[in-house]
């Protein structure tokens, strides 16, 4: 089968969570039959959760099969050299009806040693937030490991953490080792390395219907925590019909495109992800037109050399440098 160049959509991988809600259904119009869906994994190469193509000639193919058969066409030569046939990004939508646990993620070195995995650097784009919604990110200034352990023992950990109010359009960068929690009432898009390694350190003393607490990973977390103050909230420009840079880091680059008309990209040899956070648009590749809407995550293979997007929408543009 010859490789066909077109925008790839994938079947959402839906995850029930104790903190999940209904916004993925009501806001993003996902086909969901549960009131506790916390995550929709839009594109994933995580073992056990490999995405399946939802459209076009490759419909029904797994991302793994697609890359195994067409590594250069999907990833591009440089990405293939760097990651072999491992897709390097994981993209999700998250709906927090309740507060998530306070947690953190290991860096590449620790994740490789302990779990044979990538680390988990993340970026959050707030798509919708209820009034008074907030997130918890990082320690307050001057907190030491001794402070952390003391407050963890006395169950007062939130008192030494920063609470940040959030609204639609806010962007937060979560480096590895940063303690964090998404607060209730927040719907967000999350870009991250391909990893599902999370160290949960505090869960608001919650128990399930059987009176059981969720597992904590306090010992694992101790070596992984970064107590240094970090740049968390990222400002960005909002110039129309162009890609405004939000973040450039070793793991992924993220731009935002406020689209009111047309945006064209003469692509280099790498894959691009586009996330439609609101509105509607069309993608044109070689005179073929594909329609997309809010909640869609689109993979543009490396083999595509030119792309035009038209419509009225907000898009995140994601790639690996």
Automatic annotation (TrEMBL):
Zinc in keyword set: yes
Protein name according to UniProt: Phosphohexomutase
Domain (Mannose-6-phosphate isomerase cupin): residue spans on this chain: 247-318
UniProt KW keywords: Isomerase, Metal-binding, Zinc
Cofactor binding annotation: Binds 1 zinc ion per subunit.
Biological process (GO), any one: carbohydrate metabolic process
Occurrences of domain Phosphomannose isomerase type I catalytic (ranges): 11-116
CC cofactor: Zn(2+)
Positions of the catalytic residues: 200
Signal peptide stretch: none
Binding locations of Zn(2+): 105, 122, 180
InterPro entries, A to Z: Carb_Metab_Reg_Kinase/Isom, Man6P_isomerase_Firm_short, MPI_cupin_dom, PMI_typeI_cat, RmlC-like_jellyroll, RmlC_Cupin_sf
Annotated source species: Myroides indicus
Gene Ontology molecular functions: mannose-6-phosphate isomerase activity; zinc ion binding
Residue intervals passing through the bilayer: none
Domain of life: Bacteria
């Amino acid at each position: 089968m010859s490789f066909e160049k077109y925008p790839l959509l994938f079947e959402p991988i839906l995850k029930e969570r104790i903190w999940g809600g209904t916004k993925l259904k009501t806001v993003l119009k996902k086909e969901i039959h549960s009131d506790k869906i916390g995550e929709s994994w839009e594109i994933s190469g995580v073992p056990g959760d490999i995405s399946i193509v939802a459209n076009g000639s490759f419909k029904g193919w797994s991302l793994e099969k697609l890359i195994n058969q067409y590594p250069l066409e999907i990833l591009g030569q440089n990405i293939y050299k760097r990651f072999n046939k491992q897709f390097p990004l994981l993209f999700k939508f998250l709906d927090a009806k309740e507060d998530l646990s306070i947690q953190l993620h290991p860096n590449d070195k620790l994740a490789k040693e302990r779990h044979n995995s990538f680390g988990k650097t993340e970026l959050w784009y707030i798509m919708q937030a209820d009034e008074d919604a907030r997130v918890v990110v990082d320690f307050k200034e001057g907190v030491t490991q001794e402070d952390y352990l003391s407050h963890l023992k006395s169950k007062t950990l939130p008192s030494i953490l920063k609470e940040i109010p959030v609204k639609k359009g806010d962007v937060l960068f979560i480096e590895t080792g940063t303690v964090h929690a998404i607060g209730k009432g927040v719907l967000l898009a999350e870009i991250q390395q391909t990893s599902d390694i999370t160290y949960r350190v505090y869960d608001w003393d919650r128990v399930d219907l059987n009176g059981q607490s969720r597992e904590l990973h306090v010992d694992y977390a101790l070596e992984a925590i970064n107590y240094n103050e970090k740049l968390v909230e990222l400002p960005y420009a909002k110039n129309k019909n162009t890609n405004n840079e939000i973040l450039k880091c070793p793991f992924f680059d993220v731009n935002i495109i406020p689209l009111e008309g047309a945006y064209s990209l003469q692509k280099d040899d790498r894959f691009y992800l586009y996330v439609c956070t609101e509105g509607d648009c069309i993608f044109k590749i070689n005179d073929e037109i594909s329609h997309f809407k809010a909640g869609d995550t689109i993979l543009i293979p490396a083999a595509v050399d030119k792309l035009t997007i038209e419509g009225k929408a907000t898009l995140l543009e994601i790639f690996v440098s």
